[in-house]
Every structure is written in C-alpha cells, then in structure tokens.
Amino acid sequence: MKCTECQMENIGGALFCEECGAKLEAPNELQETAMESPAKRLVLASPDGSTLEIPVKDEVVIGREDPISEVFPDLDLTGFGGMENGVSRKHAVIHLSGANYTVEDMGSTNGTYVNRKKVQPNVPQAIKPGDELRFGKLAFSLKAA
C-alpha cells in the first residue's frame, strides 16, 4: 500500500506509513484500475535540457559503460559526466511493475537520491514524473514522455 504523502510502499493492511506516519487509505476501485493501465514513458532530463529516455521494460540498469570490465548498462550516464560526478558502473536499477516505477540503488559508492532523500541500497523507492533523481552528484528531473 503506497503512502500518498511520501510515496513509500507499505505492507498491505497497514494503517499508518512506516516512513512518515501518515494515515494510509485503502485503494478504491478507480486507483486499482489506474494501477493496471499501461506504463507511462519516462525520460530523465538534465539541467542543460538534454534528455535520456527510460526504456519501457521490467528492469533498466543505470550506470557507466566500461568495456574493459564488460559493463554495459541500459542507461549509460558516461556522456553526462557520470565518471566525474561519481556514478558507479552499475549504480541503480529502475523497475517497472504495471504502471508504477521504482528506483533501487545497487550498492553504489556515492548513493542514489529521490528528491534529495537517500535511497537505501537494495530497497526500491517509488518514483513518478516531477521527482528529482540523483546518481552520485549527477541530478536529473523525471518527466513523462
């Protein structure tokens, strides 16, 4: 059950959010129908205006390409200054479930942040258009395509 205040996913049947303490409401039929709708296409927009489309697939690995180590992430941030800004080779993964997206830090050295809040390694964090995603020091805004 997702908190409407902080977007944290809580266990089913919970009355209050584990993260922020807000009261949780049971999803109504309209919300359940929306969850089953097709996923929205999302893009990462950098402060300079360039964009990177997030492929619509179950799992999208974000990081830096390194042919020597044979690391080829789905979204390569090397061209955005990934190395200089502390992006790990396998930094984070975006998961798609129904129409909902989450981001999960893969134990990166410099962390992954959603709206300036650090994402705990290996713990999925809900994301939506309008959120700021930061990989190390490299920040993007998440936009609907």
Question: What keywords describe this structure?
Answer:
145 residues; mainly beta; six-stranded antiparallel sheet; five-stranded mixed sheet; 1 helix; globular
Q: State the separation between the terminal residues, measured CA to CA.
A: 26 Å
Rg is: 16 Å
Question: Which whole number gives the mean pLDDT?
Answer: 87
Q: What's the total count of β strands?
A: 11
Question: Please, could you describe this protein's structure?
Answer:
The chain has 145 residues and is mostly beta strands. The protein is 6% helix and 33% strand. It is built from one helix and eleven strands, in the order αβββββββββββ. The chain has one helix at residues 29-36; strands at residues 42-45, 51-54, 59-63, 75-76, 90-97, 100-105, 112-114, 117-118, 125-127, 132-135, 138-144. The strands form two sheets. A six-stranded antiparallel β-sheet has the order 2-1-11-10-7-8, with no helix packed on it. It has a five-stranded mixed β-sheet with strand order 4-3-5-6-9, with no helix packed on it. Strand 5 and strand 6 (100-105) form a beta hairpin. The longest helix has 8 residues, at 29-36. It is globular and about 50 Å long. The two termini are 26 Å apart.
